[in-house]
Automatic annotation (TrEMBL):
Keywords: Fatty acid metabolism, Ligase, Lipid metabolism. It comes from Magnetovibrio blakemorei. It holds the Pfam family AMP-binding_C. This is 3-methylmercaptopropionyl-CoA ligase. Belongs to the ATP-dependent AMP-binding enzyme family. Residues 28-408 form the AMP-dependent synthetase/ligase domain. Residues 458-534 form the AMP-binding enzyme C-terminal domain. The keyword tRNA-binding does not apply. The keyword Nucleotidyltransferase does not apply. GO terms for biological process: fatty acid metabolic process. It catalyses: 3-(methylsulfanyl)propanoate + ATP + CoA = 3-(methylsulfanyl)propanoyl-CoA + AMP + diphosphate. GO terms for molecular function: ligase activity.
């Protein structure tokens, strides 16, 4: 016994019997053992059980290993929300390799950059995206990347085959008795996700097994999911690994209802016919639901839980969802925090509030996820906490096990992001008296007019209350007198194109906002969006400057 050691340090050491690395790979093994005949994945006529999914994941791991894939290698996948994508979340990392799920909406230039930067050794790609992949492979000039095709019968476009064989044939190369072993170290990388790269090349965000395990569990607890939910994949699985929900659904033996095309008709169809109980997405997915036509809506008689993130959903959207019978949980996070890391935790007594008051509560980002150690609003320069007055703005900071390992091969960006011992999100917000945070803007999106800060989110929330508005984005426009003024881009609901004018929209804002916060320009247009539904404001800023 060393000097100063207490009684709890005497022969109470870590051993294989009492300490194992945390990894979400253990969830698949448990569900296959406990619920082998329960449905795991549904995709059109294809239906798999947990026992079958486990075997397919082992075959995938074995086939990858036979191709020389080993610890620290990158396996890229360009896949839609299909069973193959779900299986890759397990079959790739169990080999020790790192899963890089590619955003299939990116152009060939970005795909080429990512494949090279990640040093991908093998690529599994859906044939729908073969033209983009083919162009990317031509750019990088490498012939050492093994290509495996996925030929999905439900794809709207059937492109050409690029690989030596398809996925199903590749699985036959593998052994279903492949040993299912966890990593030796839970700090090992499990996945690689690239940021959007709107201001330069995208950055590679690296996740570890511990963080993926913890956030998967936190999804279950925070959303009160219980066992065997039927989860509809309205969120792309490539986005933050589907907010860790592939691993969550293995933890609670849920069913993945795959969805290649996200629209109102398909969402209602899955709810009515497949009894979907949960789905996630950006506010645009909620807009699909509340603006559905009578022909698209199908009645259902069970409760449907909805998790929304990305940009804060407009108050009008939350209110309309609630009226339509959907219970919305608002979460917030970034690629760097494994997806959702903050939740607007609900208090039962709030059920007695009016729907308008409930909407105001739900519009906040909220409090830390169960497994997030630190969430604060701080002065980004002094690293001091701002007062919890709901007024003083600062930068949202994170700390804990669901913060990324760092940016791949980018030490300067990693050091800057972790400056002062916290992850700097770049999101501006306030801390409210009840210690719930509310975002005000991205630091780059705040509008400074005549020395006054204007939150683009506040202006957007106001415009979203107009009955003709489907979606809106507000950006700064240079102004000789004021420095900057708000410029609004409005996407109108179908049939409303000839019913409103720019002057009427500006007056609507003046009726509800301080006049200095109101847009001087309103442009009616379809809003440019990313594949995950985020509005691409950088493109709108360029348009605003040309007005």
């Amino acid at each position: 016994m060393s000097a100063g050691a207490n009684i709890y340090e005497q022969h109470l050491d870590k051993t294989p019997a009492n300490h194992q690395p945390l990894s979400p790979l253990s969830f698949l093994e448990r569900s296959a053992r406990t619920y082998p005949d329960k449905e795991s994945v549904v995709h059109g006529d294809r239906r798999y059980t947990w026992g079958e999914t486990f075997i397919r994941a082992k075959r995938l791991a074995s086939a990858l290993t036979k191709r020389g894939i080993t610890k620290g290698d990158t396996v890229a996948v360009m896949l839609s929300n299909t069973p193959e994508m779900f299986e890759c979340h397990f079959g790739v990392p169990v080999t020790g390799a790192v899963l890089n799920a590619l955003n299939y909406r990116l152009d060939a230039d970005n795909i080429a950059f990512i494949l090279n930067h990640a040093e991908a050794k093998l690529l599994i790609t859906d044939m729908e995206f073969s033209s983009t992949v083919k162009a990317a492979l031509t750019q990088i000039g490498r012939d050492d990347i093994t290509i495996i095709d996925v030929d999905d019968a439900l794809a709207e476009v059937r492109g050409e085959k690029l690989g030596e064989k398809d996925y199903e044939a590749f699985l036959l190369d593998g052994d279903e008795d492949y040993p299912w072993t966890l990593p030796d170290d839970e700090w090992d990388a499990i996945s690689l996700n690239y940021t959007s790269g709107t201001t330069g090349n995208p950055k590679g965000v690296v996740y570890h097994h511990r963080g993926a395990y913890l956030n998967a569990i936190s999804n279950v607890v925070g959303w009160n999911m219980g066992h065997h939910p039927r989860h509809l994949w309205t969120l792309p699985m490539f986005h933050c690994n589907g907010w860790c929900f592939p691993w969550t659904l293995a933890a609670n033996a849920g069913t993945s209802l795959c969805l290649r095309r996200v629209n109102a008709a398909n969402i209602y169809k899955a709810i009515a016919e497949e009894k979907a109980t949960h789905f996630c997405g950006a506010p645009i997915v909620l807009n699909f639901v509340i603006n559905a036509t009578k022909a698209e809506i199908k009645p259902f008689d069970h409760k449907v839980e909805v998790m929304v993130a990305a940009a804060p959903p407009p108050a009008s959207t939350l209110e309309n969802m609630q009226k339509a019978g959907f219970n919305v949980t608002h979460v917030y996070g970034l690629t760097e925090t494994y997806g959702p890391a903050v939740q607007c935790a609900w208090h039962p007594e709030w059920d007695d509030l009016s729907i308008e008051q409930q909407t105001l509560k739900k519009g906040r980002q909220g409090v830390p996820y169960h497994v997030l150690q630190g969430l604060e609003i701080m002065n980004s320069e002094t690293m001091e906490l701002v007062p919890a007055d709901g007024e003083t703005m600062g930068e949202t900071m994170f700390k804990g096990n669901i913060v990324m390992k760092g940016y791949l091969k980018n030490p300067d960006a990693t050091d800057e992001a972790f400056r002062g011992g916290w992850f700097h999100s770049g999101d501006l917000g306030v801390m409210q008296p009840d210690l719930y945070i509310k975002l005000k803007d991205r630091s780059k999106d705040i509008i400074i007019s005549g020395g006054e800060n204007i939150s683009s989110i506040e202006v957007e929330d106001t415009l979203n209350k107009h009955p003709a508005v489907f979606s809106v984005a507000v950006v700064a426009k240079s102004d000789d007198k004021w420095g900057e003024t708000p410029c609004a881009f409005v996407e109108l609901k179908p049939g409303s194109e000839d019913t409103v004018t720019e002057a009427e929209m500006i007056q609507f804002c003046r009726d509800h906002l301080a006049h200095y916060k109101c847009p001087r320009n309103v442009v009616f247009t379809e809003l440019p969006k990313t594949s995950t539904g985020k509005i691409q404001k950088f493109k709108l800023r360029e348009v605003a400057e040309d007005l």
